[in-house]
Amino acid sequence: MESSELKRSKDSVNSCESARRSSFPDEVLERVLSLLKSHRDRSSVSLVCKDWYNAERWSRTHVFIGNCYSVSPEIVARRFPRIRSVTLKGKPRFSDFNLVPENWGADIHAWLVVFAAEYPFLEELRLKRMAISDESLEFLAVSFPNFKALSLLSCDGFSTNGLAAIATHCKNLTELDIQENGIDDIGGSWLSCFPESFTTLEVLNFANLTSDINFDALEKLVGRCKSMRVLKLNRSVSLEQLQRLLVNAPQLAELGTGLFSQELTIREYEELESALSNCKNMHTLSGLWDATGIYLPALYLACTHLTFLNLSYAALQSVELAKLLAHCPQLKRLWVLDTVEDKGLEAVGLNCPLLEELRVFPADPFDDEIVHGVTEAGFVAVSFGCPRLHYVLYFCRQMTNAAVATIVQNCPDFTHFRLCIMNPGQPDYLTNEPMDEAFGAVVRTCTKLQRLSVSGLLTDLTFEYIGRYAKNLETLSVAFAGRSDWGMQCVLGGCPKLRKLEIRDCPFGNAALLSGLEKYESMRSLWMSACNVTMNGCRLLAREMPWLNVEVMKEDGSDDSQADKVYVYRSIAGPRRDAPPSVLTL
Amino acid sequence: MPNMEFQLGLALPTPSIIKGFDLNNLGLDHPKDMCGLEARNKPPRCFGDKSKRSFEQAFGNFEAECKTKTLLLLWSGQPNEEEDHNDQKKRTFSTIDDRNDAEEVDQVVGWPPIKTWRKKIFQQQQHRVGRIGNNRVADKENGSRSIYVKVKMEGVAITRKVDIRLYHSYQTLTNSLITLFAKDKKCADDDYTRYILTYQDKEGDWLIAGDIPWQSFIRSVQRLKIVRNWG
Predict the structure, then answer these.
(1) Listed residue (B145, B224, B217) closest to B180, CA to CA
(2) What is the reported pTM?
């Protein structure tokens, strides 16, 4: 404390300082600022004046780093001495779709080493698209005695052995959330590594894993962790086992079931139904692997207060969904597979007036010959019944401009509009025109739009619309679209709040790339793959903008002058030193 | 003939009793003579889809189809038979990533944009359905199971699959096939090429589709083939 006071009195005189000192002691300022949670608010606060900058950095306990290469762990530790919780994101989003080479980077270990030295009291680590090894997990488990929460989303490089290390050593663990990772599932014994004396777990999510776990160990664990509120099981847990768990954990707020398909006697079914309906706090339900109409009614009584229902692992038919939704009047978020078809979505429109988010995933994404799934009709039906809809992710095989115009007219509050017409470059199937007017309608009508993914046959006109109207747009994803550099130039010239731009397979070249020179410094990152950008264009960009890292990933056997995959991001840490040979830093 | 309107023939090979329709000329001449006209006037009834493209839209815009043909061909992500690799311009698309499951051949890497772990779930589910399909009591509420048959069209490299269960008549099946293969039809084809729909039955014989009632047909059909008729 003393050194900090000395530090502050040494700070250069600032116009606000004398006025501030007389009315506002440092300690109070720090106390006030410590209540700020949003990292954007904190960034704004830190820019006010030097004193506020310092007060903010001393009071900050959570740091969010959207791109792990934009800053180094040393810089972070120097600026923020009192961090307890870290959120780190690594690879570009297109790595989710195998577009990024496997050894690209984003390894957490260097960060952990610095944290172990500077933040020994670290409590929380949330990682997205980072590479993390078992050794790193073990290092984490033994280096931070206060460690409480680990969340791994879309990470890779580790196995269940790493989880065993966490379970063994983290005595104060409250959260273990393993989602959507490329995890090497060696076996389920990790769960048995939680000591008998361990009772603090509140969040346990292992839905990602496939191996059988020791159910006995799980049952005991759930039984003694009385504060558990989130439990998401994997497929290996049966209905009968689920019932046994629920009997001991009626306080659960979020439940992910295991396999929802099993031969049950009437007695067992009734017990299951009863156990489910006893979970009075349940607001989120997921899992439901292989669920069919037979056992879904067991859920009906439990769905009364449900706000989030994730059916994306259950290939339900429209009638089954309709019957289920009749019992979910409070639903705000719904994820389904397109096996429910338009009829199922009609039921959504009829039963879920409070719906805010809808995600429709394709059950058979690579089989376009068999015509099924949802069409524009389903989306339109939902828009009529759910005026509060503001987040949509919709995979379909046909769409029309008119339908989209109707949809946004019904739901003008979209913040996230992600439409994926699965056949690349497909036009409006009724008029055969490009889908320009659809996205024009979206950006014109939805003034709050933050995130947009476009698809279908699109000319530069779409991007003219986006540049002109999408004033709040932060994230834009583009694939197989556009006609010329002009399209990308429109986006870079408009869209004042653009932060992330990801483009693949579009005819945008150097002129487009270089038109965004100043823009890229206000953005987190730009991704361009399979476009018309050349190495020379990238070199020019790197030369002009020293605060940008320009990385090119080369494909085997491609032309030397082509820049197959380009990743550009701002950084105060300089070019990274851990890039593999396939990644060239210019 | 019991079901005149189901005489597909997909062709007018000779001035015979079998009237059908010509994939190329539908809508252009003598619509009244063509039983297959219903494809154009009436929206197909398969699986409740009310707004499939009409025949003209499927075949009409040849130029547009030609331009997007490469992309469409490139996108079909099935391990299809007899693929014509010359048609696929790989330069603009990323090479196939080694991590892709051997069974799933993505001509276009990472498209549609679905996370790897989700793709694995789909694949596992499909294997499961395939394996225990014969023993399941009821896959769907109405108790019917998908019946996938391969469809090959002469002159087209890619073999497709259709779920026969999705259709309730020869008409709806043919409509769907027209739409399917409209994408593949090479632009250079002769305008007067005519086609017949044939099928292989349980005994292995190849017959012209349309002679037997629909319900018998779906129980018997093993494969479909659309052949050129030079008659």
Answers:
(1) B224
(2) 0.75
